[in-house]
Amino acid sequence: MNVKKYISELKRRKVFRSAISYLVIAWLIAQVFSVVLPAFNAPNNFMKTLIFILIIGFPISLVFAWVYELSPKGIKKIQKVDSEKLIAKQSAYQLNNDNKKLVVLPFQNISAENDSNYFSDGLTEEIIIRLSGIKELDIASRSTSMRYRDSELDIVSLGRELKARYLLQGTVRKHKDDLRISTELIDVEKDVELWAEIYRGKIADVFGIQEKVSKKIVKSLQLKLSSKEKVALSKRATINSEAYDANLRAREFLFSYTKSYLLLAIDLFQKAIDLDPKYATAYAGMAEACALLYETHDKNLKWIKKAEEASLKALIYDSASSEAYSALGLVYYNKNSPKEALIAAEKAISFDPDNFFAYWVRGRLYRVMGKDAEAAIDFKKVLELNGDFHSPYGDLQMAYKTLHDEQNLQDIIEKAALFYPSYLLRHPDDSRAHQFYAFTLKRLGRLEEAKKEMRKGIAQNPNDPIITYNAACFYALIDNKKAAIKNLKKAMENGFENYDYLKHDPDLDCLQKEKEFIALMQGK
C-alpha cells in the first residue's frame, strides 16, 4: 500500500477539509443544543440521539466528499486521476516555485477614454524595465506578459503555466489629467494576496507611482539590492510627463508600417524630444521610425541620416540602450554596411536578450549574407518574443523557400493562416497584415479569399507606395498582369524608388517581358 498516493488523493478530493469542516459544525450544533434543549424541557435521550446522528453522519460526509464535489454548476462526481502523475505534477510545481519569478501582467485599462490602452501598456512595461535590473529577481519579459492580456485562466493556473511564484496585476483609470492606479501582488503558491494598493494623482505623478510599486515589490519579497540596483530602481528615463505621454503614443504607431502611421510616430517622438532633449528612449524610437520609413516608403536620404543621428544621441544619454543599437543596426542595413549592422544588432541583443526587433534586424542581415538557416532561427525567436509582430511569418516563408525546406514552409504557412484572422480582429486597420494574409491564403490555394484580403489592404491605404507595390506582386503571382502593372505604376508615382530590388523581385517574373513593364523600368 502506497500511503503517499492515498494521502495525495485525499488532499485532491478535499476529504481532510470536509472532515474538519464537519467536526467544527457538529461541535457548534452540539453546543447550541446543549444550551437550548434544557430551556424547552426536552427529554435527556433527545441530546443522546442528536450526538449519535452526528457521529453516524461523519463517515457519510467523508464518503460524500470522496465521491462528489461542490462546483459552481452544482454537485458533480469527482473524476479519477492517476495519483502518481498528480504527485509528480505537484512536486514539479513546488520545485518551480522555489525561485522568485515574477510576472507583471498587463495592467487593465478601465478608462472611459478609448485611446488609453497605450498608457496602461506603457505603465506595465516601465515597471518590468525597473525590476528587470534586479539580479535576485527572475522577471518575465514584456512580450511574455503581454500574451496574457485577455487570459481567462485563474491566478493559480496562470502561475503554473508561467512557472511563476508571484503575479502583479492592476488596473489604470485615466481621465484627462487625473490618474487612478490599483495594484495587487499575489503569491501563487499560497494563493494569497500579499498586498493591494490604490494610487491616486495626476499624470505627472506616474513616475513616482511606478517607483513606489517597484520598491514595494522589493520590500515584500525581501530582496537584497546592491547600491547599483537601488539607483537603477529609482532611475527615470524622463521627468517630463508630457514627453513620457508623447513617447508612449508614438509607440502605438511605430510598427504599423504604413507611411501615415510612421510619420505620425515621428511627429510624436519629436514632440517628446522637444519637451525633454535628453530623453534617450524617445531618440531610440525616432531612430527606428525614420529607418523604417526610409526602408519601406521614402528613399529620401534625410530619413536615414536622421535615424543615424537619433540612434547616436540615444546612446549619448543611455550607453546601454538596446533599442538604440537595434535601430542603428537597421540604419547600417539600409546603408549597405552589413558588417557594422551585424555588430550593432548583436550589441542590442547583448544588452537586452528580449529585444525582438534586434533579432529581426539580424535575421534579415543573415538572409542578405545567404545564411537562411540562421535567419530562420532569428525569425522564430522574434515570434516567440512578440507574437503581434507579424513580419517574420513572411520572412520565414521566404527563408524556407530559399532553403527548399518544404515541410517547414508548409508549417509556417499554416501557422500564418491561423494567426492572421485573430490578429486582424485586434488590428483591423493594419493594411500590411491584410496583404500578408492574402499571400498566405494564395499559397494555400484559397484564391478568392486571398483576393478579398488584398482588396481590403489596398482600400485602407490606396496611395501608400509599399501597399500598392505589394498589390502589384500579388497580382503578378496570380497572373493578373494588367492589375499588377496598374499597381506598380501607382507605387512608383507615390514614391517607391527601390528599383534594384524591383528589377530582381521573383514575384514580378511574369512581367519582365511585358512592354509596359520595360517602359516603366527605362532609365531606372
UniProtKB/TrEMBL annotation:
The chain crosses the membrane at residues 20-40, 46-68. TPR repeats lie at residues 322-355. InterPro entries: TPR-like_helical_dom_sf, TPR_2, TPR_rpt, Ycf3. PANTHER family: TETRATRICOPEPTIDE REPEAT PROTEIN 6, UDP-N-ACETYLGLUCOSAMINE--PEPTIDE N-ACETYLGLUCOSAMINYLTRANSFERASE SPINDLY-RELATED. Gene3D superfamilies: Tetratricopeptide repeat domain (1.25.40.10), TolB, N-terminal domain (3.40.50.10070). SUPFAM superfamilies: Protein prenylyltransferase. Keywords: Membrane, Repeat, TPR repeat, Transmembrane, Transmembrane helix. This is Tetratricopeptide repeat protein. SMART domains: TPR (SM00028).
